[in-house]
Structure formats: structure tokens, C-alpha cells
Amino acid sequence: MNRRKFLSTTAMASLAPSLMKGNTTLNMPKGKAEHCILIWLGGGMSQIDTFDPKKLGSATKPFVKGCAYKSIKTAVTGVEVCEHLSKTAPLMERVTAVRSVYHNIINEHGIATNYVHTGRQISGATVYPSIGSIVANRLGAVNPKVPPYMLIGIPNVSRGPGFLGSKYGNIYLSDTKAGPNGFTRPSYVDTDRMGRRKALLAPQQGLAEEGSILADYRVAQDEALRLAGPGFMKNFELDREPAALREAYGSEFGQRCLLARRLIEDGVRFIEVSHNLGFVNGTGWDTHQAGQQKQHLLIQDLDTAFSTLIKDLESKKLLDKTLIVLATEFGRPASFDGGGGRDHHCDAFSMMLAGGGLNHQGAYGQTDDFAEQVVSEKVSTPDFHATIHAALGINPHADLMDGSRPVPITDGGTPIAKLFA
Fold first, then answer.
1. What is the pLDDT of residues 55-105, one digit of tens each?
2. 285 within a domain of the structure (yes/no)
3. 331 occurs within a structural domain
């Protein structure tokens, strides 16, 4: 083989992965969103009782299979939602209820939560990164003075950086007023004293070998020291906001959403907000048995905060720059259990997208008469991930590196093309 033939052959080989993917890689839609707020509805939101209502049933004896609430019209012709989403209904032109999401993961909370966060099944010793960590890795923070990825909730491996390392993990908090634990300096630690403490740490940090656990800890420690102080911590002073706006956001969960908006304004790239008000109905979104009876309180709480967040971002001209995602690990069947609640169901469920500069549809995908099976426009969990990435300008087919092993950002996911038309 001569030199020209050899170079031609190797060039074609290097192009092979792109050619095999065809136009999905070469013509990948690329959105212009700069931020993402992911609202996590842990427990499994019932699609038939929220964004994919069907024929009315009865949650009281004798139980009748179907929707627990009446449906109402929205701003989008032909799209209806449940009556307890009355504040969101007029805003559905800015929202797409993706009604045809599905996965075939076991209907168990932990495993399904991990899958929806990472887009991949648990595999051997490999720990895959969460979508928030992937976004942090690909884009970093909009403002280098703030972290790229924050979690308002409880951290776990599903929300973590996996093989990407702690540099791309989250800064988390559970108290919206106090902010991240340990980030507020005691009053007696001034700037000079902080500098002396950093100098004392320096020799120990220098002993950490690249790639070691100690090196990962050093990175996290450096980040914490950098952020501790009034510049970043002012974001958690919610009383800087008008009282009327704080009241419009509603409950503690609403205040989390308000904080997310403040963090977005300061340049945080990706924020996950947990809706964990389980005490309202006793079970949160995991509406077995009696939890179903007060589910409407959860839906109303979500409706208040979600609609206010959309309007607040829009008033600050940030809605087109900010993709809002409502995600959950699976849905619920249309039938009721012996206590009048609903079991777990992953064959068809709903997740929502709002803002982000997308061409919103009000609703996308169709399910059967009981919202239990997808009839048209199926969206796998990797497809949903790919849509989020594409909205943020990230190619979902690009590779991450697990050591020397390339791992595509999504497991074969394809963005929903209609949202980018």
C-alpha cells in the first residue's frame, strides 16, 4: 500500500463512527439555552392525574379505573391538564408535556431514579455521571465565580459525577436560607485569617497524586474555599426579593424555585430542585393507598411554584435562556390499589419541558385511553436526555472519557426534532 492509499484509508476509518450515525450527528439540532433547572418529583408523578388526563374514574369505593380529577383546557388548543394545574394551564404555550416517555427498568424507586438521572442502567463497577455533572463537564459555569452544578436537595450517587470525578459534582444545600453547609465563614474569620488557613493547607494538598481520592478531595476543598464568602452567599438571602414575589412562589418548595432563579441570574449552569413535600399527603408523589387522597395538594403546590417560575424568568428575559425540566422516575397506572392509591408504572409516563428557546407544542406524544401505553412518538429516557443536551447546545453523541474508554454522552438518544423546528 502506498502512502496516499494508506492516508485515505485511515481518514475514512476515523470518519466511520460519524458516518454510521448518519445525519443524526452531522445535523444535530443545537439550541441556545444557557441554563437548566431540573425539578425532581421523587416518588413517581401520576401522568393520568396531572399532564395526561383521560376519562374520569373514581378513587373511592367502588374504585373505577381512570383519572382522579376533572381536566381543564389550556392555552394550546386540544391540550388539557388536570383541574389542579389551573395556574399552569394558561402558560402551556411555553411548555411541552412529553407524554410518551418510557423505560423498561424495574419499577423500583432507587434503580429508576438512577436511570432517569444518568440515562444508563447500572453496569458492573462503572458509575455513570448524572445529567447535571455531564452539563457541568461540557459547559462549566456561565460565571466562573460560581459552581456550574448545584443541588437543592439531598445528594446521592444518582446525582453525582460518577467517573467524571468530584470536580464535576454538585454543591448541595437543603436549607434555602442558610445555603450550603459550612460555606458561611464565622464572623471572626476575616480575609487575612482565611489566607493563613489556606497557606497551612498548601503542603498537604501538594502530596496528592493526580487521579487519587486525595486529589479529588483537594479539588472539592479548593472549590469550597473559593465559594465561601459574601460574594456567592448573597444568593441565599431571599429576603432581598419583593415580599409579593416570595408569596407568589408559595411553599418551601416554591422558595427553592425562587432560589434557583437567583442562582441562574448569578451564572450557575445547572440546578436540580427536589420537590420533597411528602408530609403534605404522607407519601409525596409515591401515591400508594391513602397518599392518593391528598395528592391534589402536591399538584397544587407544584402548579403554584412552576407557573410562578415561568412568569418570573420571563419577566427578567431569562425564560428563553433557561430550560425548565420536570422529571420523575416513572408514572402510575390508571387502576387503583386496595387502598385507593396507585402502583408504579414505567411503560408510559410524562415529563415536562418549558422555556429554553424551544418550539413548544403544549404536548408531545400520545398514550392510550388510560395513559398506560405509548401509542405514538415514543421518547426513551436517553431521547429525553438528548433533548436536554441539544437544547443547551451539547452534542448528545459526543464522547466522555472513562479513563481511556470513550462513553457517549447519551446511550443512543435522539433529540425530539419538533422542539427545534
1. 999 988 899 999 999 999 999 999 999 999 999 999 999 999 999 999 998
2. yes
3. yes
Radius of gyration of the chain measured on its C-alpha atoms: 23
Cα–Cα distance, 304 to 355 (Å, whole number): 17
Total domains in the fold of the chain: 1
Check pLDDT > 90 for residue 238.
yes
**Peptide bond preceding 242: is omega within 30 degrees of 0, i.e. cis?**
no
**192 — phi, psi (to 5°)?**
-65, -45
Q: 269-288 pLDDT, tens per residue?
A: 999 999 987 778 888 999 98
Residue 143 corresponds to which cell in the numbers above? Answer: 460565571
Domain range enclosing 246: 33-184+229-420
Counting other chains too, the contacts that 242-250 makes at CB distance below 8 Å and 24 or more residues apart are 245/308, 245/312, 248/304, 248/308, 249/304, 249/305, 249/308, 249/309, 249/312, 250/301, 250/304, 250/305, 250/308
CA–CA gap between residue 299 and residue 15 (Å, rounded): 49
Residue at 372 is within a domain: yes
* Burial (0-12, 13-18, 19+ Cβ within 10 Å), 104: exposed
Give the CATH number, domain containing residue 250. Answer: 3.40.720
Read off the pTM: 0.88
Residue 199 lies in a domain: no
Query: Are 295 and 49 within 8 A, CB to CB?
Result: yes
Pair 305, 128: CB distance under 8 Å: no
